[in-house]
Each structure stands twice: as C-alpha cells, then as structure tokens.
C-alpha cells in the first residue's frame, strides 16, 4: 500500500510537470512586449509570421541616427507589418554611395537626397532612381565656422580657407551659395579631408570654416566642448538655396513593378513620423535602444533630432501640404540650381525625379496638432 501511494504521488508530480511545461510553452508564444529594438512591438501586427510579409531592404544615408527615429518607431510598432512588409535596414556610407547601391538593385529603398540622385541618373540612365516622398522639408546644407574665427556673415568667407570632403554636396553647391551671398568662389582655398576629420580640422584651426550638414557638424562640435553660441551657421536654405533634404528613394523600375509595396512603405513610415512629432523623446529612446553597438551618444543624438524637429520636419509648407509632399515650383528651382552647381548636361523636370503618386491621402499624413506634441527631453 505504501508503494502504491508513492507511485500515485509520483504520477501526480509527473502530470503537474507536464501541465507546467504546457503553460510555459503557451506563455512563450504570446506577443513580445515592446523593448525599443527593431522588430519588437506591443502591436500584435508586428508578430505576424514573416513568411506572409514582403521583404523590403532599406539603406540609410549614413550610420543610424536619431534622424531615423520615424523608421525605427514604425518598425517597433508594427506599422510596416500591418501593411504586409518585413522591413530590414543597413547603415549607409554617405548620400552618393547610398544612391549608387540603390541603383544597382542591392536595396529596394533608400534615404538620400534628390540632388545627388539627379547626378546619378544622368550618369546611369538605365538605372534611374526617383523620390517618392520628402522626409526632410529643409536640407541641413550649411557652412559652419566658430565665432573666434571672426566670421559673422557669409561675406566674411571671402579669401578664407574652407574644408570638406571632396564629394560633399554642400561643397559642390558652394559656388551657387557664394553667388547668392556675394562671395568670390575663386578667393576660397579648399582643404580636402576624410568626413570624420572635418570638425577636427575646424577645431584645430586648419580651416576657417567647413561645409556640410548641420545635423552632423553641430553635434560633433558640441561634443568637442563648444557651446551653441560658439558656432556660426550659415544655412543654404536661408541664403537663396531653398533645397529639400533627404527623401525616400526607389529605383524607378522597382516602383513600376511594386507600386503597392512602395505605397505601403511610405504610409507606414509617415505614421512613424507622426508618432515622433508627438513624442520625440520616445522616438529618441527607440533609436538608442536599437543601437547594437551601444556606443551612441544620447546627448549628441538629442541635438541632432532637435535640429530636425525645429527646422527640417515641420515647416509652414509641411503644415499646409502634409508630410511627404513637395512644392513643384520650389523643387524645380532647386533642380535648376543643382544642374548649374553640379554642371549637369541634362535639364530634368520635377517629374523626372519626384512622384507624389505613392503618397497616402493628405488626411493620413497631416502634422499632429501643436497641443499633441510633447517637448524633446
């Protein structure tokens, strides 16, 4: 009898273990909680079997930064999955390189500017790329100096030494900027360096000013110990060159073959953008969490995102037309300026580089009301 009781007790324990194992397995198959990393989401749509989703390969313009918050948020919250897409991304190595790789078909979509794309299209007419949405309404093209250099207006650049990498977009457009502000471009002595050394050359006094993106240069200068009031910034957009910033680019042949995929991507991306505008701190935190290297400087990324929020993402034009759109007259003027600045032989029109047919209805890409926008902290 004692042995029978012992065996029954053993069976009870066995079935109890089986029940626990089944319970544990059931719990393990539930939707993951949002952790801020790519692919994680509190949205059940994000857990859709990837076999049912269309893979979309995306390249960034450079290293992942806080400017990529709309993309990361849209991934995390399952917005792309809801549209039937499985989005993966890789870092870029500069706008021109990103466009080149897009043109070869290595990626399906990319974040870069239309102006370098114009130059690429002229050289590669059979691999043409087009912009399907504007993500930055104002370009961060700028010439930057330090107050200690005594350059207080653009005209003070006459006869100075400027520095930038050879392929830098703002450097290539500098003659147009010079024409607008009354600087003789022939009086400028250019020093060429690697992109990572640009701010170092300025800090060390090897150059009087640099050309580049304010979103890259200003965070680097602040990280090096400079204060905002120490930095002088001359934006091209404030000096006669009203360029758009980065866009969502696709290969023209891909867009024609996959119009619904492009539309789905753009729609989900701007849902992410709307969330970032509403809560930029959450967007910043999502990017920091997605950084697998864990080397990202949160303060520098905060500065970068703050610049974008104040002057690139939301402008009077975006408030009027919604995210993603482009003003035809403004864009054509900047295309013409690019043709002159880059020395292009062709004379492209807006339709040759930008299409709004992939944008969602205007009501789906409106700027959130000011009352719904939290400050960046």
Q: What can you see in these coordinates?
A:
- The longest helix is centred in the first third of the chain and has 27 residues, at 2-28.
- The termini are far apart.
- The chain is globular.
- It is built from 15 helices and ten strands.
- It folds into two domains: 44-137 and 245-372, D-Maltodextrin-Binding Protein, domain 2, CATH 3.40.190; 141-238, D-Maltodextrin-Binding Protein, domain 2 (3-Layer(aba) Sandwich), CATH 3.40.190.
- It is α/β, with parallel strands linked by helices.
- The protein has helices at 2-28, 69-76, 79-82, 95-103, 114-123, 169-172, 174-181, 198-203, 214-223, 252-257, 259-278, 280-290, 298-313, 316-321, 328-342; strands at residues 54-59, 85-90, 109-112, 129-134, 141-146, 161-163, 189-191, 209-213, 231-235, 247-251.
- A five-stranded mixed beta sheet has the order 2-1-3-10-4, sandwiched between helices. Strands 7-6-8-5-9 form a five-stranded mixed beta sheet.
Task: Spell out the blueprint of helices and strands.
Layout: H1 2-28, E1 54-59, H2 69-76, H3 79-82, E2 85-90, H4 95-103, E3 109-112, H5 114-123, E4 129-134, E5 141-146, E6 161-163, H6 169-172, H7 174-181, E7 189-191, H8 198-203, E8 209-213, H9 214-223, E9 231-235, E10 247-251, H10 252-257, H11 259-278, H12 280-290, H13 298-313, H14 316-321, H15 328-342
Parallel strand pairs: 1-2, 1-3, 6-7, 6-8
Antiparallel strand pairs: 3-10, 4-10, 5-8, 5-9
Helix pairs in contact: 2-11, 2-12, 9-13, 11-12, 12-13
